[in-house]
Amino acid sequence: MKWIDLSVPINEKMPVYPGDPAVKIEPAGDIHKNGYEDHYLSIGTHAGTHIDAPSHMIVGGATLDQVPLENFSGRGVLIKSGMNLGLETIDGVSIQKGDIVLFHTGMSGLYREPEYYNNYPAMTEELARYLIDKKVKMVGVDMCSVDHEPFPVHKILLKENILIIENLTNLSALDGLEFRILAFPLKLQLDGSPARIVAEIPQTNS
Amino acid sequence: MKWIDLSVPINEKMPVYPGDPAVKIEPAGDIHKNGYEDHYLSIGTHAGTHIDAPSHMIVGGATLDQVPLENFSGRGVLIKSGMNLGLETIDGVSIQKGDIVLFHTGMSGLYREPEYYNNYPAMTEELARYLIDKKVKMVGVDMCSVDHEPFPVHKILLKENILIIENLTNLSALDGLEFRILAFPLKLQLDGSPARIVAEIPQTNS
Hints:
homodimer, about 25% strand, nine-stranded mixed sheet, about 210 residues, alpha/beta
């Protein structure tokens, strides 16, 4: 097996969604004084590479701990969408029940720029509804969000319990490969969680 | 595939290692006011089910982001050790290079009791050295720690870049099964990280 990391590093310098609290990391134990090094991490549930649970946008929706484990992994499908997140971008792509569909827009190249948060394309509602019809497990993007306020696409997907992955990186490493996505969030009884999201490439594939 | 969760839930009521900071969860966005629900999680790098990086106890040791991705998964080996964490507990067990060896002591049944932190067995240095000889990837326990202050076993394992998983739960669900462990921590440039640790059971096995 070969593994590919699709997650951004977590540190105090990472950008966060406008209005969200910044990541803070404080020492909690000193190796010379206490015999071990230890830290206290403060992080928003939607900072960095993370997963949205239905309760993020749906009143009464499931929190992450209520989502069955099998929903956090599946066959990955990479869509080289560029900035077009309409139905035409998946023309001719075979999407199957249980797939995890990742859209590579290229926005991750602007991760540290203002444009990353104020000039990104929104997925169309038609595409979101198509992915629901196909019964995918998760939808992922290399952007800060799948759409803009008031977030109709978030609501369409989360209402159907389709999880959303945001702030993916390194998607170009998946070009031309068959892969499986593993996207297990922390066991938080909350609306979202940062997660280490990785692709597993079968040996026959590399 | 079938998945088994080996992670404790993360919330403000969870116990933490004596002296470590408590978990705090604050609201950051309100679904009625902001249109979305969002939280700010503050958590120690060694709270709940978590992974120790070498830098936790070794000066100049690797932080978690420096550990190759392939070290976070492998064939799982379950040792029903009970409270005996000496060499004899793995008598006759076939341990291979790259395995992730989990010791089921039963201490997880006392997770919320004072004994969980003040009366648990330590792994012997001999057993730790045997696991190093076998070139395992990770060593996991359903206890708050693999040993007691001044933590000789931690240091023996971490010095050889063998990662340690602590506060596992639900290990009895693995009895008699073949399984693979997936234990991907957050991409923190730090000494440890809470992680969603799961076992993957091949279909032929259930």
